[in-house]
Amino acid sequence: MSGKAHEIYLPMPHPNHDNLTPLKRLHTIRGHLMPDEMEGNNPTVFDKDNVPQAPEDPLFGLMAAYRKDDFEKKVDLGIGAYRDDSAKPWVLPVVKQADEILRKDPNLNHEYLPIAGLADFTSAAQKLILGADSPAIKEKRAVSLQTISGTGAVHLGGLFLSRFYPRPTDQAIYFSSPTWANHNQIFSNVHLPIKTYPYFSPTTKGLDFDGMRDTISSAPEGSIILLHACAHNPTGVDPTREQWMEIAKVVRARKHFPFFDCAYQGFASGSLENDAWAVRYFISQGFEMCIAQSFAKNFGLYGERAGAFHFATGPGPDAQDTVRRVASQLAILQRSEISNPPAYGARIASLVLNDATLFKEWEANLRTMAGRIIDMRKALRAKLEELNGQEGSWRHITDQIGMFSFTGLTEKQVLRIREEAHVYMTKNGRISMAGLNTGNVDYVAHAMDKVVKEVQ
User: Fold this and answer.
1) Bridge partners of 198?
2) Is residue 180 annotated as part of the catalytic site, yes or no?
3) Comparing C-alpha atoms, which of 318, 293, 320, 314 is closest to residue 305?
4) N or C terminus: which one in the chain shows less Cβ crowding within 10 Å?
5) The pLDDT of residue 4
6) Helix, strand, coil % (nearest 5) of the chain?
7) Is-contact 433 392, C-beta < 8 A?
8) 409 vs 205, 291, 447, CA distance in Å?
């Protein structure tokens, strides 16, 4: 190689190029240097055939439509977050107290949490869902990891089961029809086959228990059965304790694996103990199981993403060894996805869960939220039955529990009530009871009554 500098020869300017701007001149030179086949083509490999436009999330689309609506009496019954009687977000008083304690802590820092999360939080969360006297805790056959709220817990559990749960005949995970919309996406993303069991009866607007039980009973042995611990989303319909016992018998007989999703403990009935009953019953029966636990609703920490994932194995001489091995694999999965969970929400919840005075205050806050929602159920039902003159015709509104209610309105009725009364709810007729208050419940009742009478 010679010592001469490498020379680049550019095309000689054309006489007609004298008046070109620098940008046009650069484009002309680029045309000379680039292959003809590249000219005019989009260089991306992510064209519409490879990456089609995804549909808008229905719930977030509904929220966007509500925000754009300038009608004075509009009502948002879609949002899954608690609102006070003035339709405002409510920061729990106990959360304000815990936040004040945190801010005054001279040792507060922003260091990473361990992969498994804040230990004081996960141990307290475990006791909250399993019970402080749980045999699974006493026998050290449960392990807990802090997660990105309940969504992260469901995902971590799904990923673990996809990797490690033996499914020799490609057994599916079964969840209720209907269920929380994100269940389908989460389990699809971790490549678990999906099937459903009947849950809501359009006729009774209650639980289709026979359909649920029979489908679980006929599912291939060793299937994964996802169960809502309380305040079923979206229907608000829960099994009775006797029905839970029957479900446990069927799950046991078919050697299925139960996976509980618990997003509303304490928020549903106002009682932490009552809302955890199903989970604790399955634990008492010696089931090996997974539990996803959220602190978004019951602490009002929606944006802080505080949650926990729990794995409990059945009693036996190798139980502790099983838990150690499972914990080691869960840590690897967690590390590869989020590395370390966020600290703030867990610190708030941990302070409350581990302090007797704050815990008592939290229970009072839970009763306030649950109590207001129960009052709104009663008020809505009473007004609807007053308007149609049929006592008991809207009984399902008060029979259901928790944040949501399946009204029984059809998609046509939902679209009409949105168009005419500016009342926003999901197309399947689900309403968030937290969106009702003393100022709008009569308005909503009149709108519902009108649309039921006019749209078939």
Assistant:
1) 177
2) yes
3) 293
4) N
5) 46
6) 50, 10, 40
7) no
8) 11, 32, 12
